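> forwarded from #structure-qc
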């Protein structure tokens, strides 16, 4: 039975790859990575969850170096199980922010909404009465992208993806040195607009810190809206360093 479950799981993943076309966002990211003319791009997946997002990029760039960061213990274990055979994939149980230290990750009923931030009192209403409730805490080590890059002697990041549930601005502050030197080519951020977390990043703050470091908006993708009012809930945004933006 156990072997059948593994076989069935792999079959489902294979079918999904074959019949599900790549999204416009995924196609554009692959195009941008191809434009860097490197078969070994360095990718930071911050908020990697269980490793689904990075799969198409590993397929296209099997020799890349990918650093996957996931603070929630159960999701981190899933990452380890998924990628333990690949020596170019590095997994870290770590929360990236604007300073080194320790913090508590808020564990919610829906694991993909876990965050260092507390849920906003209007969160369920914001997502049209979807049940959003915190159930526990886990202690986690925090670090900054700048310090981590120094620690592992990483001079340049080709693709930085942030899915950090409202903490985008603080994570970007923690990458201030790399941003100032344009040492991050491509940034992909999931940006939450509607009240979901207390003290969540403001869209203006995110755009301002990138603009102040001369990063250019390349595209907006996957805009999610409320059904009734059509207010924007969240969207994905891609930014490029000015040097790379002018090159492509």
């Amino acid at each position: 039975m156990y072997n059948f479950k593994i076989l069935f799981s792999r079959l489902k993943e294979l079918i999904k790859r074959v019949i599900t076309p790549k999204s416009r966002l995924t196609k554009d990211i692959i195009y941008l990575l191809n434009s860097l003319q490197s078969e070994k791009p360095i990718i930071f997946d911050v908020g990697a969850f269980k490793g689904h997002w990075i799969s198409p990029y590993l397929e296209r760039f099997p020799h890349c170096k990918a650093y996957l960061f996931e603070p929630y213990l159960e999701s981190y274990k899933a990452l380890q199980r998924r990628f333990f055979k690949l020596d170019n994939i590095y997994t870290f149980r770590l929360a990236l922010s604007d300073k080194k230290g320790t913090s508590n990750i808020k564990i919610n009923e829906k694991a993909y909404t876990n965050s260092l931030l507390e849920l906003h009192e209007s969160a369920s209403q914001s997502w049209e009465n979807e049940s959003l409730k915190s159930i526990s805490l886990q202690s986690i080590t925090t670090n900054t992208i700048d310090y981590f890059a120094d620690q592992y002697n990483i001079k340049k990041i080709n693709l930085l993806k942030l899915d950090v549930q409202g903490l985008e601005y603080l994570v970007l502050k923690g990458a201030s040195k790399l941003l100032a030197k344009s040492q991050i080519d491509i940034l992909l951020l999931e940006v939450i607009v509607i009240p979901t977390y207390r003290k969540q990043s403001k869209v203006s703050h995110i755009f301002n810190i990138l603009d102040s470091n001369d990063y250019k908006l390349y595209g907006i993708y996957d805009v999610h809206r409320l059904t009734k009012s059509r207010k924007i809930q969240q969207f994905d945004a891609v930014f490029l360093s000015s040097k790379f933006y002018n090159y492509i």
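QC bot note: DSSP finds ten helices and ten strands in the chain. The radius of gyration is 18 Å.
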